[in-house]
Amino acid sequence: MNISGTTIYFIIFVIIILLVTASIIKTILNKKKPEPQNYPYEKQSLFTPAERSFLGVLEQTVNGQYRIMGKVRLSDIVKVKGSMNKSSWQNAFNRIQSKHVDFVACDPATLNVQFIIELDDSTHNKSNRQERDQFIDNTLKAAGIPIFHITAKKSYSVQDIQNIISKAGVMVARI
Question: Which residue in 150, 101, 100 sits closest to 121, CA to CA?
């Protein structure tokens, strides 16, 4: 059997192509699948038991006159004035972006903010929390939004909440 040099080169070329192809296929098949992302999160309640209890009485108090939203970011309620330079604007925004308020009462038709309620538990007695509360109060005052601080307790009455918010001129129908 007489095999020419060209034939040998062709056979070697085909073998090399087959080996390279087999290697590529093996790499593709053996490629490790990416490990799923590890998301270290779990569900939690939106409200504490005290906040949930208060929300129920607050909704009875406003009796449909306002739509109540909970745990709203301050930056969703107020905005930084656009007349500032970029650096000052960003600093002002950074101060409001991660703070939230407990309850926001909105006009049911327009969803415009009417007033805010903060439920103050014992953490509000700490100095850093008092500074935060003062900042939020001043921010809302500058924006013309009333805020009410109500001391957290085991139970609430519609009458108590009506009395607190009516002192500031916010009227709710008596039930």
Answer: 150
Handedness of CA 111, 144, 150, 102 (dihedral sign): positive
**DSSP state letter for 140:** H
Write out the two tokens for 15.
């073998």
Q: Which residue type is seen at 150?
A: I
Q: Which two tokens stand for residue 55?
A: 């929300």
Residues for the chain: how many in total?
175
Q: Return the structure tokens found at 61.
A: 């108090």
* pLDDT tens sequence across 86-126: 999 999 999 999 999 999 999 999 999 999 999 988 777 88
DSSP letter, residue 77: T
Task: Specify the amino acid at residue 173.
Answer: A
Burial of 20 from C-beta contacts in 10 A (0-12 / 13-18 / 19+): exposed
- Architecture of the domain spanning 49-166: 3-Layer(aba) Sandwich (3.40)
pTM confidence score: 0.73
Place of tokens 């939203």: 69
Contact indicator for 132, 99 with CB cutoff of 8 Å? yes
